[in-house]
């Protein structure tokens, strides 16, 4: 078997092989574009070929920026389009491609890799760990009344990062069609993702090609665009009426809590629907607490989203921001690549130093578990209690919890 990089001339073979791996046929592109594979970077993809030249497997990567704790932007390879023909599964093709890809990413100088896992059992063995989480929230419209804020002086206190009150706001909302506001969506999303840990960039070519899922894809959607007091767009909610009685929100993007609340009020106030479904909802979002009936919001589809793998542990740990001082020795095992390292992590004034050490470890963990901790969305203590991380001394777990936390919970909306 040969694993080789692809070129633009391989696009059709790559796409056909990938779809065959999942038992599907490529859909026909619309006039406005919109097929997800139109944004593939062919110089970053791989084909697995048999000795007689037949393609049997695919793996690809996108060039993204990932927002780390501390509002730090770091390059990250977005692994995608991974598939093996049913006729060649369980023959080592997938492992060979993933090992080849990780080696290639390192050769490019990249230190982070991310993916969306089609199956949770597959990618942990390659060193990836779930790092952000998402859920679906369904709110019956007859139970969508908002409670009055109980904080004393709430009407006079701005929401986090905003000059307006989270309950009232001073901006406006304009209802547009998706075809009327592409540039606005791109601009607002880019502002949002730069401040949200766990968020990925959406390169301009994705928007220009209509690649991905709505609202990137040009599928018919209504978009509620929020503008601040100066008329500058600072949030949007993309939605459709998929059923006669259900309004489904693809995503809500807001640069602060006041904008998020205003957009939630807008969609929850829509006439002629009985329920509103938020498809991609952060687990710690305050909306359920803002409703008069706390039980009105029904949570479902609670799942992992972005998985993270560290390719260069010292570079990755020194790249992100930190919010307290401390020192930990991490003993990290990487069985897929046959590597093992022990690192002294020292944090002072928001910056980290990470160097090899022979000191006794504070924590022993798999590289996939370190990926789960990296963005601050999984507490080390959770994995200690689960039996995945071993703490070697009293206090090590509590210190790790405090060190690895982020300024806010990581969340990723982007599908790739």
TrEMBL record:
Keywords for the protein's UniProt record, in alphabetical order: Acyltransferase, Transferase
Q: Where is the active site?
A: 123, 416
Tell me if Oxidoreductase is a UniProt keyword of this record: no
Q: Which CDD domains match?
A: NAT_SF (cd04301)
Domain annotation N-acetyltransferase: ranges: 1-153
The answer to whether keyword Transferase applies is: yes
Q: Which residues participate in acetyl-CoA binding?
A: 82-84, 90-95
The record's Pfam families line, in alphabetical order, gives:
Acetyltransf_17 (PF17668), Acetyltransf_9 (PF13527), SCP2_2 (PF13530)
Q: How does it assemble?
A: Homohexamer; trimer of dimers.
Query: Which HAMAP family does the UniProt record give?
Result: Eis
Which family does the UniProt entry place this protein in? Belongs to the acetyltransferase Eis family.
Please report the name of this protein according to its UniProt entry.
GNAT family N-acetyltransferase
Source organism phylogeny:
Bacteria, Bacillati, Actinomycetota, Actinomycetes, Kitasatosporales
């Amino acid at each position: 078997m040969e694993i080789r990089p692809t070129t633009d001339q391989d696009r059709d073979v790559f796409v056909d092989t990938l779809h065959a791996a999942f038992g599907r046929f490529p859909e026909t592109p619309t006039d406005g574009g919109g097929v997800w594979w139109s944004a593939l970077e062919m110089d970053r993809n791989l084909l697995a070929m048999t000795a007689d030249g037949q393609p049997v497997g695919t793996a690809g990567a996108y060039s993204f920026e990932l927002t780390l704790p501390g509002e730090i932007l770091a390059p990250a390879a977005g692994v995608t389009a991974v598939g093996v023909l049913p006729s060649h599964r369980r023959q080592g093709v997938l492992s060979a491609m993933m090992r080849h890809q990780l080696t290639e990413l390192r050769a490019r100088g990249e230190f982070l890799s991310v993916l969306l896992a089609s199956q949770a059992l597959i990618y942990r063995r390659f060193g990836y760990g779930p790092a952000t989480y998402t859920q679906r929230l369904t709110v019956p419209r007859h139970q969508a009344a908002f409670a009055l804020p109980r904080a004393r002086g709430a009407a006079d206190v701005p929401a986090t990062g905003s000059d307006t009150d989270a309950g009232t706001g001073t901006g406006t909302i304009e209802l547009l069609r998706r075809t009327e506001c592409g540039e606005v969506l791109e601009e607002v999303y880019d502002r949002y993702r730069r401040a949200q840990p766990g968020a990925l960039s959406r390169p301009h070519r994705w928007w220009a090609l209509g690649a991905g899922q709505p609202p990137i894809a040009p599928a018919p959607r209504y978009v509620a665009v929020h503008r601040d007091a100066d008329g500058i767009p600072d949030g949007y909610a993309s939605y459709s009426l998929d059923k006669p009685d259900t309004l489904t929100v693809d995503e809500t993007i807001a640069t602060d809590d006041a904008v998020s609340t205003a957009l939630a009020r807008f969609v929850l106030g829509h006439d002629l629907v009985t329920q509103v479904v938020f498809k991609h909802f952060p687990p710690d979002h305050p909306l359920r607490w803002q409703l008069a009936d706390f039980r009105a919001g029904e949570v479902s589809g609670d799942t992992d989203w972005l998985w993270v793998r560290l390719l260069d542990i010292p570079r990755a740990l020194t790249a992100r921001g930190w919010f307290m001082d401390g020192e930990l020795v991490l003993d990290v095992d990487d069985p897929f690549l046959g590597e093992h390292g022990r690192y002294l992590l020292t944090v002072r004034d928001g910056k980290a130093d990470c160097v090899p050490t022979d000191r006794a470890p504070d924590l022993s963990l798999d590289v996939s578990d370190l990926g789960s901790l990296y963005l601050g969305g999984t507490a080390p203590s959770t994995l200690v209690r689960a039996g995945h991380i071993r703490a070697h001394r009293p206090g090590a777990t509590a210190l790790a919890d405090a060190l690895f936390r982020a300024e806010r919970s990581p969340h990723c909306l982007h599908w790739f």
